[in-house]
Amino acid sequence: QVQLVESGGGLVQAGGSLRLSCAASGSIFSINDMAWYRQAPGKQRELVATITGGGTVNYADFVKGRFTISRDSAKNTVYLQMNSLEPEDTAVYYCRMGVGLYYYWGQGTQVTVSS
Question: Residue 23: is its pLDDT beyond 90?
Fold first, then answer.
């Protein structure tokens, strides 16, 4: 069993920054891709950013230039540095990790950006 625990969410003013973390624990041999998703009230969950085991990153257009995804494979942890936050970024942010044949999700962390 694999557990993902997220942290770092909170309330921030527009233009501010937050750094999310997601640490995996449990029966882990290796982690393939890692990703961050978000879900705003009344909307579907959407992909924010991904990072492969080799470090290749991809971003949704709406966060390019503002968010940075990174990983520390030794710590089984993925990060999301979020700068220049906008009220439209308000959502619950979820991490997802590919471990073996399965994907695991974190419980989500709330990010609220005030105008």
Answer: yes
